[in-house]
Design goal:
This protein has about 450 residues and is α/β, with parallel strands linked by helices. The chain has 13 helices and 8 strands. It has 3 domains: about 1-210, Glycerol-3-phosphate (1)-acyltransferase, CATH 3.40.1130.10; about 215-300, no CATH class; about 305-430, no CATH class. α4 (about 95-110) crosses α5 (about 135-140). The protein is flat. It starts with a helix and ends with a helix.
Length: about 450
């Protein structure tokens, strides 16, 4: 059952995200006991990454109420997850003794477990204070049994370019393993409190090294826009192709690093160089307003030739004609379910961090019902054999529709820039110049930040 669900969620992640990068797999021990610790920004999608994209098979710790939910409960049980009993859920925390014992047994058997030491999913710009459970479990398992001293903790940083958005980008970054000391355990098999706190502090520092951290949402928001402008201007300088169609290797991870550098710079420069920072923020805001007014993507190309435009248009036309036999009926069948998934997920979500999860759960229910319903209608009113063919073709048509719609979107964004370049070349040149100027401004701010004394 686990293999079945793992295959399903591998597919879901691949469809939901346009690009997924896994960085630092060499930091994950090939065998032996491992405790994965991760940040928790995106509800159920976070464990899916470690369950489906980790080089090790993972046993996850999940809050106990999930085990009682109709659909989610079957999923967490299928993956062999262990329940965590929390007072805020109405459970008795003393029941965690069984869970901790199960974790210790799994680790002593050389398995890998994973948990979120923040204790809850959230949309804060930085890590929440970590609970000590991960450190206590690791110390307890590492200080007893046949594998005494053999356990390591691997920090796993999750990053989403736009976590609630379908067809966005994500990365999973594994940091260097943390060596777990061997300590003396008490009669309850618990490690000393000071050792648990010290190891928790190490975990906190390691997680901060593989995630984006900010002290406020303003810093994170301006960094998000600035890094997109900077990345586009970098492609201009390098003469690279539009990254939307030709993404570079490690692009999402580099985006995460750039965003963190900008966040760090924002925090330091706000005190040391407020005038320069304010000028940069004003330029970025003004540029962003122009992009929205002209309905352009940040990744529009800075140079256009007639030949390139004609070649791209002919290639796109050929693709549209080739995909049309499946894309058109796929769009007709799946458009309303797609809109329904979006509407239901927003209404059912209690916060931004659960929107993507609600989209996935709603899609898992609504799209299969749509495909089965259309096949049933063909079975009743047309032909049973054709109904089977329709049932098999429906998922393929949905995927082809997705490819076609994304291609059309790229063409529309490109066409807007073509129109601007042909009919308002002065405005186009001004936008390109402003984008390059912002890049230079960001580099200058980075130099100012580097020159500041470290804390």
């Amino acid at each position: 059952m686990r293999n079945l669900f793992e295959g399903i969620f591998q597919l879901i992640l691949r469809v939901f995200f346009r690009e997924i990068e896994i960085v630092g797999e060499e930091n994950v021990p090939a065998d032996g006991p491992v405790v994965f610790v991760s940040n928790h920004p995106n509800a159920l999608l976070d464990p899916f990454f470690l369950l489906c994209r980790s080089p090790r098979q993972v046993v996850f710790l999940a809050k106990e109420p999930l085990f009682r939910m109709p659909l989610v409960g079957r999923l967490v049980k299928a993956f062999g997850s262990l329940p965590v009993y929390r007072k805020q859920d109405g459970a008795n925390p003393k029941d965690n003794a069984k869970t901790i014992a199960a974790c210790r047994a799994a680790l002593e058997g050389g398995q890998a477990i994973a948990l979120f030491p923040e204790g809850t999913t959230h949309s804060e710009p930085g890590l929440k204070p970590l609970k000590s459970g991960a450190a206590r479990i690791a110390l307890s398992a590492n200080s007893s049994g046949d594998r005494r001293g053999d356990l390591s903790i691997v920090p796993a940083g999750l990053y989403y370019s736009a976590k609630r958005t379908f067809r966005s980008e994500a990365s999973l970054v594994y940091g260097a393993p943390i060596a777990v000391p061997v300590v003396e355990l008490d009669e309850s098999h618990e490690p000393p409190r000071d050792d648990a706190h010290a190891l928790t502090a190490q975990i906190d520092a390691a997680l901060r090294g593989v995630t984006v951290q900010a002290n406020n949402q303003d810093a994170l928001a301006i960094a998000h826009v600035a890094e997109r402008i900077f990345a586009a201007a970098e492609r201009d300088e390098a003469g690279a192709q539009d990254a939307e169609e030709h993404p570079g290797k490690g692009a999402v991870f580099e985006e995460m690093n750039l965003r963190q550098r900008l966040v760090d710079g924002y925090e330091a420069l706000a005190e040391a160089h407020p005038a320069e920072l304010a000028a940069a923020v004003a330029s970025i805001d003004a540029y962003e307003a122009q992009i929205e007014r002209h309905h352009l993507s940040h990744r529009y190309p800075s140079k256009l030739t007639v030949g390139a435009v004609v070649t791209e248009a002919l290639h796109a036309l050929f693709m549209m004609l080739a995909l049309a036999p499946l894309a058109v009926p796929g769009w007709v069948l799946n458009y309303l379910p797609y809109r329904l998934v979006g509407t239901l997920s927003k209404r059912a979500s209690s916060g931004e961090e659960v929107v993507a999860t609600m989209k996935v759960l709603a899609a898992m229910l609504i799209f299969p019902l749509t495909w089965i319903g259309s096949a049933a209608a063909v079975f009743v009113w047309v032909d049973p054999l054709m109904a089977l063919a329709v049932l098999l073709i429906n998922p393929i048509a949905a995927f082809v529709t997705l490819v076609a719609v994304e291609r059309i979107g790229q063409l529309i964004r490109g066409a807007r820039f073509v129109v601007l370049a042909l009919f308002r070349p002065g405005q186009k040149d001004l936008l390109v110049a402003e984008r390059k100027a912002i890049r230079i401004m960001i580099l200058h701010l980075a130099e100012l930040a580097d020159a500041l004394p470290s804390e």
